[in-house]
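User: Please predict the structure of the protein below. I'd like the answer in structure-token form so I can feed it into my own downstream comparison script.

Assistant: Understood. Taking the following sequence of 314 residues as input:
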Amino acid sequence: MFNRRPDGTYLKSLPAHTRIVPFVLPTRISGTIFTEQEFDITETLQFLRRFNKKQAAAEKAKITFFQLFMTATIRSIVLRPKINRFTIGYRMYQRNYIGMNFIAKKILTDDAEEIWITGDYSPFETLGSIGDKFKTLLREATRGEGNESEDLNVILMKLPRFITRFVFLMIAKLDWWNLLPASLMEGSPFHGTACLTNVGSVGVEAPQHHLFNLGTCGLFVSVGIVRKEWKPDSKGNMRQRDVVKVVYSYDDRICDGMYGGRTIVMIKKLAENPEELLEVPQLTASQLENLMLKDYPPSMANAVESSEETKKGE
């Protein structure tokens, strides 16, 4: 009974050395690994200019690099499902949705209000599908619509401090005991696959951001400034390139370093070569089964299982 949660499936057959890690590193912050990459997005920006011309002609939402990066992250999570795990109560779970939460300012000024925007995404997400969804979420949040997290913040800050502290203590305890209602998880920036922030949009370089002990989110990504740098090409000639620094903070308890590192390499590869993101990913029944998404059962597979995959699985 106490292994069941509305947001994930308990993984009871993991190796002992994996299950013991939360006892050694009992908090998400104590298990955090920080790493960073430099993306060469010269061709990516050229691709976006061509793509957005077609979007404008079709009267569809334009795509920014941040939205492209989010699509690459979602695609990598789909293909590398262990990144969508979380640890709570010394137990490991596979999250049953892909929740991408990001921070935005209502207007780009120092004193402007900062807001969390939360959303669930499909494993079949493409660049074409993410633009309109992103635009809708951003418009609703900046207008104060559909932002349950911000509504709850306003209510809590009207209460005496000791009551607010007690509320957060109870939220953490109920979450720990798997008794937190799904209604409180919906719209929570602390319950989701990843938190992202595009600090480059306000002229700030990507920082090493902390994770949150509250909730279950095990990945925080900061995207920095797009800047010009001179770099040698394959023939040794110097060329001016568009580069951006991306910094990751992730919970090392959910997967080993090799798996996490290769997932981050995949994100970079997709962001620098985004043509693949135009197409709907071909997912087999085994892949969807490994993802364990509540709204996307194995019967929704759009690819035929190869004999080798059927034999060995993933």
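That's the full token string. The mean pLDDT is 89.
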